[in-house]
Amino acid sequence: MAGTVLVSGGSGYIAGETIRQLLARGWTVHTTVRNLSREAELRGQLGGSPETLRFYAADLMKDAGWAEAMDGCDAVCHMASPFPTSVPKDENELIVPAREGALRALRFAHAAGIKRFVMTSSAAAIAYGHPPGKSQYDESDWTNVDAPGVQPYIKSKTIAERAARDWVAANAPEMDYCAVCPVAVIGPVEGSDFAASIDLVLRLLNGSVPALPDVGFSIVDLRDIADLHVRALEADAATIHGERFIGSSGPFQRFADVARVLRDNLGPQARKVPTRKMPNWAVHLLAMVMPPARQLLGELGRVRATSSAHAQEVLGWSPRPPEQSIVDCARSLIEKGVVKV
Description:
Layout (H helix, E strand, L loop, with lengths): L3 E4 L5 H12 L3 E6 L5 H8 L6 E5 L8 H5 L4 E4 L13 H20 L4 E5 L15 E2 L14 H20 L4 E7 L1 E3 L11 H9 L9 E2 L1 E3 H13 L2 H4 L3 E4 L5 E2 H12 L13 H10 L4 H4 L7 E2 L2 H7 L6 H14 L6
């Protein structure tokens, strides 16, 4: 079903791999960036020709550029969304552009007569704000943004996806809308511009994590989550209409699990990877002097396991094991010189 697709946020980690896979499958890709000064750099990473990959300047909070980017497209893969490098002072710094950007993309897609809209949401919109005893999650679950301790980024992804679904139901019920909800994305890197989840592997390799807190997450490979987006773009309309697909590759992984995979597979290159576990009281002390560590407090001992059975059954998706993703990520960080071991 190759045609022309707009992938918003073309400088992003997941978007880049999705664009590469779409080009390889014969799609023509339009992509948005905030500043066209990055076009030459990104074209070198993404491939394609000026005929098959076209760049447009567009911002989540402005109308300019979106109509031109949508022109001639058969589908939209909306991936652009703000991601914090630190906890913002005002949560609306994340919530407003995430929500308004999704609604803006939907409005312009609808005006252009585009029928297929795949939105990158997140498992953050699924697995938070629930009672402490809950540990297993699927597509029927929604994060409770009013629960204590829910971080601004988690709120932004939840509110944006809900707003998008409400807008489609009210304004374009015929649109084939679906959401892809990735967990922590890990995989090979092209350089130093990558997802925040990669930072964990980097810090374990370079020794900047002195011990392993009792914190974990589910993992999905970059190449597999891009493939899940492509499958959603190419599936029959009835298959994806209104759907939600979790992208997760296997068992819940703790810091200690990731560290063990690195040590077992990298030999001397993993010599800085810690072996000691960090007691919970030490995490609490650390949070008193390092504000970013405060985000770990609510995760101590928690399990947030997500099932991708729905995506596998409906779209025939088959992710690789998380161990392979961890090792491939680490080796690429070393090969690209991002981390010195």
